Amino acid sequence: MLLSPFTPLKLANGQVIKNRLVKAAMEENLGDANLAPSSALINLYRQWVRGGVGVMITGNVMVDKLAMTGPAGIALEADSTLDAFREWSSVVDKSECKLIMQINHPGRQVFKRQGGKVFAPSAVALDMGKHSKMFAQPQAMTDADIEDVITRFAATSLQAQKAGFNGIQIHSAHGYLLSQFLSPKTNQRQDHWGGSIENRARLLLAIVQKIRASVTDDFIVAVKLNSADFQRGGFSLEDAEKVIAMLNDQQVDFVEISGGNYEAPAMQGRAADEYTLAREAYFLTFAQKLQRIAKMPLMVTGGISNYSTASKVLASKIDLIGMASALAVQPDLPLWWQSRTEFKPKLPKVTVKDKTLRALATMATIRRHLSRHGHNKITRPIHPMVSLVLDQMKLARLNKRYRRNFVD
Ligand SMILES: Cc1cc2nc3c(=O)[nH]c(=O)nc-3n(C[C@H](O)[C@H](O)[C@H](O)COP(=O)(O)O)c2cc1C
After folding, report:
1. Which of 23, 27, 283, 358 to mutate to test ligand 1, by most ligand atoms within 8 A of the CB atom?
2. What domains can be seen in the chain, in order of their start residue?
3. Looking at ligand 1, which atom is closest to the CA of residue 60?
């Protein structure tokens, strides 16, 4: 049968997803001073529900408010007040759309100016060339730190379920803590958390198991995984195949395939690898290889913004189509595609030479769209470097607020 992006999908746990179009995670930087969802953030999600997506995966929510990926992110801990989170989940109440909270720990990927607790499997700092000093030096984690992280992921998942979310997605991609454990480049431990891929994946598996023991069976538990880090000596496609095989034995409802990290931002389609240079659906070839092993549905994200590419993903036997930038620019894209499959959102073009600045300018440009949708404002195009400067000014203000409230 030829599937359409509007064909429903039934997950192994019985949950039905109304169509294959998934809003992939985008950190919105719209948290309030207490790191809880603001009204603008909640309003943004209302627009995606109205726009017709089948699933929304939230921007990453931190399991520890002292370890944030950004100063206006969201944190959900065991004792956090749930009121604002309940309001957030209520956006899907009268719809068939599913809301999945992405949960994350940054590990070493923390900006120095933001501060907080910065730890990693080993004390290996980010190498960003001349931009390296923007990042904090991490400390190697103790066994107690690792146990604390496992407990936190499970506690955040249980809180998400109590707050009315349909599931969680464990962020194990893009160079954050769990991805640092998976990569031999960042995980140089000699104990049972490092070395073989079985050891490097031990933390991810322990987290999946502890979450599963904490939530009900119909609660969706998903994982976001790199197909590869695209770095010499990093997490490879062969490693990813083994991790998928290990996840096959767990109750994981779907796995999203991405790639890259801050040092090699392949998730923006610009790794040195030949496969990722294809402009559209640049992880599709990898996802197809992983699909031969996976028993659970796979989702692929990266470079999908037109209907024919979305259809190609399904024709390649990948079950879910992840889109971030396209839905940031055009939250009602699924509605457009229901009546006009040739409709294409106008994605911003960021052509800055410096790799780090280009990644930051891309994020700033897309985040500007998110913020303006959240505040019901029209987004007029501005130069990506202007977006970057405005974003940096906003971040400087928010870093001060975060440091004052949580770090100093
Ligand atoms: C502003 C912005 C924020 C992002 N935040 C997250 C995040 O919180 N978690 C995550 O897994 N990926 C995050 N991503 C990566 C996207 O989920 C996605 O993998 C990437 O943008 C490629 O997909 P696209 O081509 O559809 O944009 C972010 C991307 C952007 C542009």
Report:
1. 27
2. 9-344 (3.20.20.70)
3. 8
